[in-house]
Amino acid sequence: MSGDTLATPFTPDRLVSILRAEGVRVVEYGSWRTHNRNHKGAFGPINGVMVHHTVSSGTDASVRLCYDGYADLPGPLCHGVIAKDGTVYLISSGRANHAGGGDPGVLAAVVDERSLPATHKHEGSAGAADGNSHFYGFECVNLGDGKDPWPAAQLDAIERVSAAICRAYGWSAASVIGHKEWSDWKSDPKGFAMADMRARIGRRLGSKPTNPTPPAKQYEPFPGVAWFKKNPRSPVVTAMGRRLVAVGCSAYSQGPGPQWTESDRQSYARWQRHLGHSGDDADGWPGAASWAALKVPKV
Asked: What global pTM score does this model have?
C-alpha cells in the first residue's frame, strides 16, 4: 500500500534515474533542481501521482508556462510536462502549485490503495487537504476540450512516468489519480479514462521495465521573440551564437557572447535566409520554427 507516511521526495538525481530506467525520455529544464515552492509549505510525505492537462498547445509555450506560472499562480505548476511526443520536461523536484486543495477522503483512499470515493472538496473549501504536499504532478500538453488528441507516445509516457514512481516507492497503480478525482472543481485530464490508465500502469508494474530509450538530446526551448527584444544577457545567447557560427551564418567580428547585440541579430538573419526565409521573416529576430531548426544546446 502507499500508506508509508515516511515516503520522502526523491532527490533530483533519483527522480531522473528512475524515470530513465522506465524508458522515459527526460529533458532537465532550466533550474528545475532548485525551482520549487518549498517556502510555502511542506513537500512530503509523498502519497501518489497526479495527472493533469495544460489547456495549452505547443511544447515550448507549455513548458515555459508551467515553469514560470502566471500572476495568480506562480510556478512551478508541476514536476514535469509531458509533451505530445512523449518527452518529459522536468520542471521541479520540490513543492509545486499543481494540485491545490482536495478531498481528504480521496487522499485516504490513495494511501490505502483502494477505490476512490467521489470528491467533494476543492481549493479553499473547508477541510480540504493540501495536495501540493502529497503528490507528484505531471502536466500533459493538451487543450483539454475532449477533441485534442492524445497521441500514443504521450499516453505511453504518462504510463511510464507513473509506473516509475510507483515502482520506486513500492506502490500499486491505485496511487495514480487525475486532478478531477482530487478536486470537484477540475475536469482534467479530459480525453482518456483514468481507470484505463491505471490498468495500463498496473500491467507495466507486473513486469520489469522494458524498452528503455536513451535520453533525448537537450535543446533550449524558444524563449519568445519578446525576450530577445529586451536585449537579454544570458548564456542562452552565447549558445545560440555558437550554433550560428557552426552552421556558417556568423556576422560576428569577434566570438559570440552572452549579451544580445546587433551582430547576433544579423547572424540570425543569415540563418533565417539559409532556411529560405525572406523579407520580414528574415529580420533577425528569432522565431519558434527557425529556433527549433537551429537546435541550441541546453545550457
From this structure: 0.72
